[in-house]
Amino acid sequence: MGRVGHRTVSPTTPGTVIHQLATRLRRLTPSCGPVRLIGVDGHAGSGKSTFAGRLSTVLDGAPVLHLDDIATHEELFGWTGRLLEQVIEPLAHGGRARYLPYDWNARGFGPARTLPAAPVVLIEGVGAGRRALRPYLAELLWMDVPREEAWARGRSRDGEAQRDFWTGWVAAERRHFAEDPSRPFAGLLVRQFPEGYEVLPGPAGTSDAPLSLTHRDGPSAVC
Fold first, then answer.
1. How far apart are CA 7 and CA 152, in angstroms?
2. Cα 75 to chain center, whole Å?
3. How far apart are CA 153 and CA 75, in angstroms?
4. Which of 57, 80, 97, 159 is 20 to 30 A removed from 39 (C-alpha atoms)?
5. Average pLDDT across the chain, whole number
6. Alpha-carbon dihedral of residues 90, 96, 98, 104, nearest 10 degrees?
7. According to the 3-state scheme, what is the secondary structure of 178-199?
8. Is the pLDDT of residue 9 over 50?
9. Residue 167 contacts by C-beta under 8 Å, 6 or more apart in sequence?
């Protein structure tokens, strides 16, 4: 995986970080058939969905797979086989993926959705950088928010009605990352500030990235 340089420059154009990151991702070698599959991982509440949405826009509407659509109440993290069968294997063969999204309110699977084998596909959610998926990723981004801060954001976002769910979720997430950590394998870290995002080298980064500068964008959402 590549590496972003260390020098920080004050932003002059909003969106500099994400546009440069998008350019970098487009230049990567396809990793899953014709697809450059990009993982966006981090603790629940760390801003993965917001960041992936902004990145998708800059990537001309790159498809985004939300792992919330793959997980279920009974399988918060036990969805690897379903993801490989419904999404990864079809993309690896150059075809359109077809998966059944989970409805968290109805507690069942909804109508099938398709995911094209686009040049860049984003997969975001807790566990996007898990061991079973890393061989198919062209790059892994980690939303670098401390877990207690991220969980506090998530609890605030979801409200009192989801208190019991969050109690179970936190325990499950702790177990997952203890057994199958993602951050050590991230090529890039994404951090949020009041003025936007900063992209830094990750633990798995190398020194040969096409980007030579680290910028901050503005503004940024936090959840």
1. 31
2. 19
3. 23
4. 159
5. 87
6. 110
7. HHCCCHHHCCEEEEEECCEEEE
8. no
9. none
